[in-house]
Design goal:
Strand order of the largest sheet: 1-2-3-4-6-5
Number of strands: 6
Distance between the termini: 101 Å
Shape: rod-shaped
Largest sheet: 6 strands, antiparallel
Helix content: 25-40%
Number of helices: 4
Length: 152
């Protein structure tokens, strides 16, 4: 004998009260999604917006004028770069980073970049006055020319 048959025999048929059937027929399915689904959509939207913001192009300033670049960096990043007005290294452009700036320049016919940040920077070659400098060059020998950005 099946368990359902045992209960049927023991309890017999029971009629549901009429008010129960009225409540069942009047009930509507929920029109709004459950709270958890709303939270998932909100979290997905936040992640999407953060991804878009992370990949937005950074403002860039193209100039070979050391004074103009220095003023732009001071205004935009709050860093006072001691750029030389003459020397072997020639500035091409500067762009904002999340924690500082990146200068693109040429020295002895080769391109290189220097990243300057206010916070600590991994692999920093040197720091001065709470500002950290990191050089990136095509070849290690190009590091010598980078001194010409600030020193004649």
């Amino acid at each position: 004998m099946h368990a359902g048959d045992i209960f049927q025999d023991a309890l017999g048929g029971v009629r549901a009260p009429e008010e129960l059937w009225e409540r069942v027929h009047q009930a509507r399915p929920s029109q709004s999604p459950p709270r958890a689904r709303k939270l998932v959509w909100a979290a997905a939207a936040a992640v999407l917006l953060a991804g878009v913001a992370w990949n937005l192009p950074r403002p860039e300033f193209r100039s070979g004028d050391a004074a103009a670049v220095r003023a732009w960096v001071r205004q935009r990043a709050g860093i006072d770069l001691p750029l030389a007005h003459s020397g072997p290294a020639r500035i091409e452009s500067v762009r904002l980073l999340r924690n500082g700036v990146e200068l693109a320049y040429q020295s002895h016919g080769r391109r290189a970049t220097i990243s300057v940040s206010k916070g600590s920077a991994p692999g920093a070659h040197w720091s001065a006055g709470g500002v950290f400098y990191v050089l990136t060059c095509e070849t290690p020998g190009d590091l010598d020319g980078s001194c010409g950005l600030c020193h004649i």
